[in-house]
Amino acid sequence: MKHYKKHIFICENIREKDSLKKSCGRANSAEIRQVFKSRLKELNLSIEIRANASGCLGQCNHGPIAVVYPEGIWYKNLTIDDVEEIIQSHLINDKPVERLILKDDK
Ligand code: FES
User: Fold this and answer.
1) CA 51: distance to chain centroid?
2) Which of 40, 56, 72, 74 makes a 20 to 30 Å CA pair with 95?
3) How many Å lie between the centroid of ligand 1 and the Cα of residue 26?
4) What residue ranges define each of the domains in the chain, with the CATH number in brackets?
5) Which atom belonging to ligand 1 lies closest to the Cα atom of 23?
């Protein structure tokens, strides 16, 4: 079996409605992942690039969060409108989308 060239994990964690912490799953992340999946399929890329759901990635206040491997680039505050740019720029052309990158805390 061939390994995937790239993997994007999108947090779909959903907290209780009365939770004081934010959660990506309450900010449309499941729909964002579905758009990634269907666009990758349309582009015939789903054999080499995979979009998977993940649990909490520990950056809840910046969500919806996604992380792309093997680079380990994290994206924050994602919307459906960002999906095509991430696919075209990062997943296909290896140019991460700077304006959406979650930087390490210093
Ligand atoms: S709920 Fe998504 S990073 Fe924690």
Assistant:
1) 7
2) 56
3) 10
4) 6-100 (3.40.30.10)
5) 1
